[in-house]
């Protein structure tokens, strides 16, 4: 399917898409702050520049949009153009690689998906709080957000 916008129009539209400090990120950070947790944002020295970083606890949190980061992408990739297939696939590969690099450096990585934050904010915040306070290190790393990187299509 060809793009219905000129390259200049598409460039303008894409330049307006926020990459950080999105509404979801602000919501998550606000809830964490209300619970007395202090953190850094978008730490460029870490792979993937996590959205929320708890340095002492070595917990990195990513708040990812379902479309942009390809939540369960194999189940819907045939519904988008080749441009989006390539773009989302590269994003997913980069996310997986950054996750691996952080884990190898001893970080607990939590990925909060857009639909999780919207549907169950409290559970998302509890996952982060538990990881920061040292409870359930394994569950935080292998938790709810990771199944979205499956590589096979679901029937």
Characterization of this structure:
This protein has six helices and four strands. The chain starts with 6 loop residues before the first helix and ends in a 13-residue tail after the last helix. The protein has helices spanning 7-15, 23-34, 82-104, 114-119, 121-132, 137-142, and strands at 40-41, 52-54, 59-64, 108-113. The model is unreliable at 150-155 (pLDDT under 50). With 155 residues, the chain is an alpha+beta fold. The protein has one domain: VSR Endonuclease (Endonuclease, Chain A, 3-Layer(aba) Sandwich). Strands 1-2-3-4 form a four-stranded mixed beta sheet, with helices on both faces.
Rg: 16 Å
Q: Per the principal axes of the C-alpha atoms, what is the gross shape? A: globular
| Span between termini | 25 Å
**Whole-number count of domains:** 1
CATH superfamily: VSR Endonuclease
The helix/strand series, from N terminus to C terminus, equals HHEEEHEHHH
CATH architecture: 3-Layer(aba) Sandwich
Strand order of the largest sheet: 1-2-3-4
Percent strand: 5-15%
Report the uncertain regions: 150-155
Number of strands: 4
Q: Please, what is the average pLDDT?
A: 86
CATH topology: Endonuclease, Chain A
CATH class: Alpha Beta
Features:
155 residues; alpha+beta; Endonuclease, Chain A; four-stranded mixed beta sheet; 6 helices; disordered C terminus
SSE topology:
Elements: H1 7-15, H2 23-34, E1 40-41, E2 52-54, E3 59-64, H3 82-104, E4 108-113, H4 114-119, H5 121-132, H6 137-142
Parallel strand pairs: 3-4
Antiparallel strand pairs: 1-2, 2-3
């Amino acid at each position: 399917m060809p793009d219905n916008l000129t390259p200049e129009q598409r460039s303008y539209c894409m330049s307006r898409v926020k990459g950080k400090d999105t509404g979801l990120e602000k919501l998550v950070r606000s809830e964490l702050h209300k619970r007395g947790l202090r953190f850094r944002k978008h730490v460029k020295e870490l792979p993937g520049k996590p959205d929320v970083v708890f340095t002492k606890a070595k917990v990195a949190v990513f708040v990812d949009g379902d479309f942009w980061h390809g939540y369960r992408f194999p189940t819907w990739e045939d519904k988008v153009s080749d441009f989006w297939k390539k773009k989302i696939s590269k994003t997913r590969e980069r996310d997986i690689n950054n996750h691996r690099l952080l884990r190898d450096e001893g970080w607990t990585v939590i990925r909060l998906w857009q639909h999780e934050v919207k549907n169950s904010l409290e559970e998302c915040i509890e996952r982060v709080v538990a990881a920061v306070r040292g409870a359930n290190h394994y569950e935080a790393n292998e938790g709810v957000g990771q199944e979205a990187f499956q590589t096979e299509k679901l029937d």
